[in-house]
User: Which sequence fits this backbone?
């Protein structure tokens, strides 16, 4: 471990209200849930923060429940909790699939859906699912609660609308009508960070979202519009190529990501033919 | 801070942000748990916390307060998985072995080869090519099932 722990401070709230008061009065603090992202940066000496807030014991943030036909996922629900939940398995099979492809089982046991959202990586495996589901991020501070559409949550690369005094307390996922589809493309099925990750719904109106092809997870409005009016898949693929802005990095190239994203679109459309 | 370590009550004074891995190795003297990558990619540091396998390099000590922690030492040395890894060549350099075994503890009963491959997907081995590890895990599962049958 390159970061010495001695200078680090960990605040330990007993309740959510305590946690929100600490964020207001003693911030800035980095909230900790399953720690699967934060400890990577601590272990590699790249974590700039020195003050942390331990949320792991706040049982009021656990739990997955029904809400207006959709689901409300508490901020501490892990990827394992989501895969085991009968409600999620019944309603959101593509979220179950996405959670099963996050890291290995050890990571799924600790990492949370809300943490995946807060970490704001454009490669987050569950994020395209939340984008096509039109999920809502529930933020709370000592001043009150606000609900932010997931598709308006990110403002740029690793940037969100969250204020430093706010916590994600839940993710709300509305009921989805239509066939759900998810595919992650990486070097290896487990552990590898995605080169391209896609979620889609084929219902009244096709919905498509991609990860790892832009500074944030993205919905593809042009592709969705083209498919909705019955355009040929080749046209939708051309539009996709213009709607994404991937980069070359250690995991892949921009050209590969565009080609594979377009291939995934065609594969999904053919597999879900109605 | 108090927790349960390999079935016995433990009380350790360590920084709340110290990694569980370091507390186990340096404060508790349990060096069976290994550090591999330090970023949750390799599974070498896998231990059970509250019955679930986790990477102990990513867990702050504060988060195991009052929890039950089981390390490779807690298996006692004669566990069917330990015997099978030794007799079937499931271990070569040995760095990944404790993590592999702790992860294999939580596979479904009577696992198929696919169950084993999927369950151990978060554990990397640079020596064996995995085949001997899979054989050892499947062999231990068969032995455990036969023992259970003999008891009934």
Assistant:
């Amino acid at each position: 471990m390159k970061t010495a722990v001695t200078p680090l401070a960990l605040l330990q709230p007993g309740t959510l209200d305590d946690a929100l008061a600490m964020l207001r009065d003693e911030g800035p603090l980095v909230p900790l849930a399953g720690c699967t992202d934060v400890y990577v940066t601590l272990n590699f000496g790249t974590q700039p923060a020195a003050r942390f807030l331990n949320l792991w014991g706040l049982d009021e943030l656990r739990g997955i429940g029904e809400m207006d036909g959709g689901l409300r996922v508490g901020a501490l629900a892990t990827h394992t909790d989501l895969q085991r939940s009968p409600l999620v398995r019944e309603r959101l099979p593509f979220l179950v699939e996405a959670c099963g492809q996050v890291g290995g089982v050890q990571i799924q046991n600790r990492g949370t859906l809300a943490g995946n959202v807060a970490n704001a990586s454009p490669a987050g495996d569950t994020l395209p699912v939340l984008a096509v589901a039109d999920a809502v991020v529930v933020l709370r501070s000592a001043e009150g609660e606000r609900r932010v559409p997931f598709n308006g949550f990110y403002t740029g690369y690793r940037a969100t609308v969250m204020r430093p005094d706010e916590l994600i307390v839940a993710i709300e996922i509305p009921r989805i009508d239509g066939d759900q589809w998810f595919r992650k493309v990486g070097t290896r099925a487990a552990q590898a960070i995605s080169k391209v990750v896609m979620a889609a719904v084929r219902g009244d109106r096709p919905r498509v979202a991609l990860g790892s092809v832009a500074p944030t997870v993205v919905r593809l409005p042009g592709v969705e519009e083209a498919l909705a009016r019955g355009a040929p898949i080749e046209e939708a693929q051309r539009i996709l190529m213009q709607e994404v802005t991937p980069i070359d990095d250690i995991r892949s190239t921009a050209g590969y990501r565009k080609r594979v994203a377009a291939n995934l679109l065609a594969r999904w459309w053919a597999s879900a033919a109605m | 801070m108090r927790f349960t370590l390999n079935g016995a009550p433990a009380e350790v004074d360590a920084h709340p942000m110290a990694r569980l891995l370091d507390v186990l190795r340096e404060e508790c003297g349990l060096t069976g748990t290994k550090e591999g990558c330090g970023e949750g990619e390799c599974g070498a540091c896998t231990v059970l916390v509250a019955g679930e396998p986790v990477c102990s390099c990513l867990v702050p000590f504060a988060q195991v307060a009052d929890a039950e922690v089981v390390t490779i030492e807690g298996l006692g040395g004669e566990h069917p998985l330990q015997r099978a890894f030794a007799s079937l060549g499931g271990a070569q350099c040995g760095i990944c072995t404790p993590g592999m075994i702790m992860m294999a503890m939580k596979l479904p009963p009577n696992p198929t080869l696919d169950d084993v491959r999927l369950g151990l997907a978060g554990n990397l081995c640079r020596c064996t090519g995995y085949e001997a590890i899979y054989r050892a895990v499947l062999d231990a599962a068969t032995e455990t099932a036969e023992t259970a049958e003999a008891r009934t």
